[in-house]
Design brief:
By secondary structure, this protein is of the alpha/beta class. 38% of the residues lie in helices and 18% in strands. It has two domains: 41-135 and 222-235 and 251-305, Rossmann fold (3-Layer(aba) Sandwich), CATH 3.40.50.300; 143-219, no CATH class. The protein binds adenosine-5'-triphosphate (ATP) and magnesium ion.
Length: 305
Amino acid sequence: MIGSLRQSQGLLEGVLLSLSGIYEQSLYLRDLLLFLDVRPQILSKPGAILVPRPITKGFVLEGVGYKYPGSEAYAVRELNFALRQGESVALVAENGAGKTTLVKLLSGLYDPDEARILLDGVDLREYDLVDLHRNIGVIFQDFLRFSFLFKENIGVGMVDEIDDWDRIQAAAANSLADTVAPTLTDGFDQQLGRKFEGGVDLSGGEWQKLALGRAYMRDAQLLILDEPTAALDARAEYEVFERFTELTRGRTAVLISHRFSTVRMADRIVVLEGGGMRETGTHQELLAQGGLYAELFNLQAEGYR
Ligand SMILES: Nc1ncnc2c1ncn2[C@@H]1O[C@H](COP(=O)(O)OP(=O)(O)OP(=O)(O)O)[C@@H](O)[C@H]1O
Ligand SMILES: [Mg+2]
């Protein structure tokens, strides 16, 4: 009898343990279900049109205003700005002036609350969103670090082509990510992130090269780089931009950076302040104007004297 009592005690313990296990796992399941329930907030209209190839005129913002949901103040307001086909524009501004918001509006991630954005004369809302995203290669400031294989981290830039090895290699070469792969045991097949066994972590700059590779995965007509080199060393930054100028010759590009050495490479510089455009011109023109650009440039230059 004692034997069977002991046995049933063990069994009961087992049952309780499994029950608590089920509860624990169900918490994750809830996350998954919530995630699967998420619906995109902007959808393509029925009968949406495809983005012209090639784009001929470019993007025009006609006094655009945008407010983040739940926030009182406009992040950008009365923003007039034209991005002509084939030109490279650098956005310069202080923190919180609306640079990232502007490029998110351009790439169709948010809909303007006021006025509209035109692409080749047609409202951006008329275009098919998936096709629009396919045409825009972008790396955001707060890019993600996926616990995937090295090559997959680049491949996710264009999920449909994640198995296209040639494309991944070309993107890696353009973003300098190919200089990182040889330092890893498994090269391009290296598991990244500490979440998985054998996964390794990279340095901030190395992650950034991978994220940059993602932007190069697409046949983008517009390339947007939001502080793509903040974590790169001086040599890597120089090389990244040399390649960037080569690759974007004749293509449209928007570049956001707080480093004036980088900003000078653009065809045209646009200075934002408080969510609106304040100045525009070339580096020389803006310096001569002696406005906000000249002030910020001189502040930075001061540090190097
Ligand atoms: N997700 C958000 N929700 C609410 N407000 C936001 C959000 N993102 C940005 N803002 C606000 O919008 C304004 C513009 O922010 P934005 O990120 O575009 O600035 P930025 O020019 O990119 O700055 P930085 O140089 O720091 O990157 C800021 O006042 C900011 O507080
Ligand atoms: Mg920003």
